Structure formats: C-alpha cells, structure tokens
Amino acid sequence: xxxxxxxxxxxxxxxxxxxxxxxxxxxxxxxxxxxxxxxxxxxxxxxxxxxxxxxxxxxxxxxxxxxxxxxxxxxxxxxxxxxxxxxxxxxxxxxxxxxxxxxxxxxxxxxxxxxxxxxxxxxxxxxxxxxxxxxxxxxxxxxxxxxxxxxxxxxxxxxxxxxxxxxxxxxxxxxxxxxxxxxxxxxxxxxxxxxxxxxxxxxxxxxxxxxxxxxxxxxxxxxxxxxxxxxxxxxxxxxxxxxxxxxxxxxxxxxxxxxxxxxxxxxxxxxxxxxxxxxxxxxxxxxxxxxxxxxxxxxxxxxxx
Amino acid sequence: xxxxxxxxxxxxxxxxxxxxxxxxxxxxxxxxxxxxxxxxxxxxxxxxxxxxxxxxxxxxxxxxxxxxxxxxxxxxxxxxxxxxxxxxxxxxxxxxxxxxxxxxxxxxxxxxxxxxxxxxxxxxxxxxxxxxxxxxxxxxxxxxxxxxxxxxxxxxxxxxxxxxxxxxxxxxxxxxxxxxxxxxxxxxxxxxxxxxxxxxxxxxxxxxxxxxxxxxxxxxxxxxxxxxxxxxxxxxxxxxxxxxxxxxxxxxxxxxxxxxxxxxxxxxxxxxxxxxxxxxxxxxxxxxxxxxxx
Lengths: 305, 294
What we know:
heterodimer, A: alpha/beta, 4-stranded antiparallel sheet, 34% helix, B: mainly alpha, MetI-like fold, two-stranded antiparallel ribbon
C-alpha cells in the first residue's frame, strides 16, 4: 500500500462546449519518505494536480488517498509551499508561522509553541528577520518563510508547488540546496512540482514527467539511483545524469511534438477594410472609421464604360 | 518664480495669492451701503441707506468679517440656543454626525461582508442597495420623522435626551452615509486573493479566525476608503438635517440666519462647513494611511 495514492483521477473545468479537460487518468503512488518530482511544461496542469492532493479541489473521477484514507478536503497534514509564497503581508515572519503552529499544536503551551516556531525560523536561517513583514523580505527569504511554515506544521507529506519558480537563478540554486538538506533532515515524504529538469535531478529520488495538456497525464517514472548527496557539478558532469536528463527532456519534447500535431487552428484573415486615405483636410463629422467587411450592407461599385 | 521654489514658499504664497484673487472678485460683485441725507417733504433731514452693486445684498468681505467677528473671536460663547460661537455650533453638529456615522459603520461593515462573501446574498440585495444609494438626505428625513414620531431616547449619564427630530437626524445621517462603506467593504472582500483563502483552508482555521486573521486585514484598505467617503457624506447630510429640523448646530444656524436676512453669517457658515469637512477628510486619510497593508 503506497503512502500517497492517486487512482484514475480526471479533472476538468467548465461545462459543455467550454469544458477543458486538464488532467486525465492520473496514476501516482508515492512511498513513505520518498522524494518525488513531477516535471512538466507550464500550463500543463501541475498546480491542478497539487490542488487535488491538497484537497483544495476534488477529482471528477478517481480517488486520492493518503495513508489509506481518502482526501476529502484541505488539512494541515499536507504542508503546501505555494509558488507565490502566500504569506499574509500584514503579519510578521513569526506571526505567519505562528498562525499555522497555533492551529496545529493547539494543545501545547505558548512557550512550547514559541520554541517550536523559533526552531523552524532558525532552520531556514531567518532568525535576524523574524520580526519583519513579508514586504520587507526578498523573494528568496519569503519562500524560506513559506517552507518553514509548511514544515512547522509537521505534515505527513510536503507539497512543493514550483516553489522556486519566481526566483532568480542564483537564489534558486542556493535554495535548492537548502530544501534538499532540510527535507532530508526532516525525513519527510516530499512531492515537488517543477518545470526545471535540473532541479528535479538535484533533489528527487524519482522523476515523473507530466505530458502537456489538455488532458495531461503522468508518464513513466525515471528513478534516480544516485547518492542522496548531489551537487550541480555532479549533475553537469556525471555521464549517468547527463543521460537521464537527456531522456527526460527527450520525453517531454516528444510529447510537445505530438501536441503540436494535434492542435490545428483554423486561421482567419483580419476582416478590416482599408481606410480611405483620399479624403483630405480636417473632418468634424462622419470621420472615416475602421470598417469590417462583414458589416458592409451596400457597396457602390463604379464601372467604367 | 525661482526664489519661491528655493525657499519652498510656493506652497504658502501661491494659495494665498489664490485666496486674494477670489476676495478681489468677491468684493467686485458684492454690494455696498450708500448712506445719503435727504430732505423730505416736511423739511426734515433723514438718512437713507441703500445698497448698490452687481449683487446688492451680497455682503463684501469686510462686512462679512465685521459681522462674523463675534462668532469667530468668541468661538465657544453661548448667548442663546441659536446664537453661539462658531466652534460651539461645530461641536454640536459633530456630536450628531459621530452618532449617525457610528451607526452607519456598525450596520455597513457586516452588510458589506455578507455581500462580498455570498453571491446569493449579493444578488438578492444588490439591486435594492443600488436603488437606495442615490436617495437624497432631504428625502430620508421626513421618513425618519414619521418613523420616530413618538419615540424618545434618553440616556441621562451621557446627556442624551432625544426626541423625534434628533432621532430623525441621526437616522438620516446613518442611512445616507452607509452606502460607500457597504460597497467598498463588499469590493474589498471580493478582492481578497484566493491564495490567502487557500492558506486559511489548508490550516483549517475556524470561521472566526479566518475572519479576524485573513478576511478583515485583507479587506481593510478598501474598508477605510469606504469609511472616508462615508464620513464626507455624513458631514454633508448634517447640514440638510439641521436645516430641516431646526436644531442648534452649524446647519441650523445657517438656516436661521437666512430667515433673519443676515447674509454675512451664511457665508461664515459655508466657510466653516468647508473647513471642517476638509479637516475631517485629512484626519481620515491619515488614519487610512496607517492601516494600509501591502
């Protein structure tokens, strides 16, 4: 029995003609303590998938179970790090984390909770900034607060929804290392969603590509059987890693090719009539306006004898 | 003009120049008294005072000042119910405004939250609100009079002893000034980012905690914009309410002086109303900037 299990989940939005299938027949099994990365194009339904697991939305068909129990709604047993941080801007770093901790560990004494919060702020190296508001922090620091908030809830599974997508390359590299370390220390089950294959290779035990939407589904998983301590140098130079990356990218590109063949759009020419430039001088009324061919009711055609 | 900018005097001097120009224009239009001595048919000399000018009865700036000086220089004097210093009148009016405004906010904020949170509630009451919103205070006041015809509220420790006309005035202020707060609160609640609501959902915050920790702080900037607009309207309405009920206050004074043909005092009242309204708006914008969240 897998720890997190999704069986035949479909999800779409809208009804009738406007309906678009986002996810189709999702099958996913994650074992306890595993670090799984899902890689896919932007807009392929990655966030929809995370929302299904988080319980923020329900699948149209199929089931999502965590530890054998079906997921029926959101809950603090699944810590989420959102792409756009989702920190409350009117609370300080400490208060943001306290909001989560007070909720989850409501039976603890205030002193225990304060110590717990301080521990997680220290874990993400933000102790000097603990009384600052999110607006005063850089993007990288905000995302670290978000990670600390998710971990401080002591969730069964950590869901990372493109956590580093909005950051610059240098900050992203630093935070990738930190997230790797922190999640290994905490020994959590982690599901990382990303569009960066290198990020997935750096962190995950298993990488699953998500085919591009509409009707996205999960491809075959690629196991990264390499030591857990990895760094950029290894990923860039080790031949096994290079091969694995090439395979994943090739898979995604092939899916993209298929998508290109499937989508054929009917092209229509613009319907505007050319403006009559022979009129001269300022015109107060009946100014020439752009006209559309299909609105013309009558046309005067001069025929030279 | 360079020397003006250098000493930052243009903020002081230019408005003064503007006021001066308006005063000159005003004196030009205003009438002035001409006293002539005439010998009448019986041979007695009598003095006849006549006013001439473009607008003969409009007092000139100097006359306005002369007539207003006792009210301005002894701002808290009380010579009679409808003959008090200008600040005493302002105080009476402000007291009434604060009561009406407080009632407006107490009603408007929950109403706004309901509108913002529930689409059903919004569809149900939005048309009604849109219809009631543009109704003038002059139309509400008679209804208030009828509603509170035989009502009496008396709270001796607060010095409140209200009859129908006081209650009608408070009612009118409340009912006219609540709409901007209702609509802005509703808009603020609708504009709460889905991310914040997701956070509340994931943390399984209780309804009360979601309201106090997420919804209210997020909607607060919008709400304060509404509060500010509401205060402006409450102050507009007080004048109309006092004029019609004849209560002592800045509007009541204005109306009484109009009936007494004392036009200088009307101008004094208009200026006072304007200055007080301006000060209230500034105060509110200071409070508003305090509560601005990112």
